[in-house]
Amino acid sequence: MRILVVGGAGYIGSHMVKALLEADFDVFVLDNLSTGYRELLAGGTLVQGCMGDRNLLDNLFQSTPIDAVMHFAAFSLVGESVQNPLKYYRNNISETLSLIEAMVRHRVERFIFSSTAAVYGEPVRTPISEDHPLVPTNPYGTSKLCVERILEDCDQAHGLRSISLRYFNAAGADASGAIGEMHNPETHLIPLVLESALSQKPVKIFGTDYPTPDGTCIRDYVHVTDLAQAHLLALRALLDGAGCCAYNLGNSIGYSVRQVIDVARKVTGRKIQALEEQRRAGDPAILVADSEKIKGALNWAPEYEDLESIIATAWKWIKTKC
User: Per-residue pLDDT for 282 more than 80?
Assistant: First the structure.
């Protein structure tokens, strides 16, 4: 089986490539390396280029029969999407549409889409299940929801079967310490807290007056290896004939910003200073997943369910970069 991983040199994509190789799939990676890193790839065949390049896609699909495509190539910074929505609509919708059109032309009929909890917008209830209203509050979430709708329509019109996986907060690193999270600039809380442990520069807490037990935001952190395993299960479901659907991916446990910092202090054994600042616009107080649907349908069982083990793998990776 040949799998094309689009955006496979990025954080989650590189962990997916490793999992596919370990499961004996033949892996091809399409990545323009704008936010990905060649050194994160555990193997496979790298094709450097953009998913919106029609000629490149046609040549690729003609020369290499592909059994399924996995998409990890979206821009994903919420704040940037608000400031520059056209960048997000162009890449996340228009470029993805070019990829889907190429798949239809070449009769590649299985697609796994990296979606997001941002499709839900401001939660009206928690934990959030898949039947929660879909009302995104930023261009990033809107772009992801648009692609989900496109995929549903293409299932009906072209037989393109897809599974959309709505991540909550991806975190952690491969247990080997060989690959992990690399963003420039870094915006995710856990690596920022761990970088603070190394540099002894304060980490910022945005908002301490939320209606939560300690006043800081609560989020659901899911380990990147568990995400990759969920994608493998989704891939096998599509190979067995599953139809179009969407699943949440989270641990269904919420941790506050202060809890993340406290656990990081325990894991690293270092002092971590916190600098309290005003809230950021658009940050919901609580985002926690209900992931029972994928557990029941695909027997997904996360290995890393406690925050300490998630942070420990991220710390192991960050120390290798020093």
Answer: no
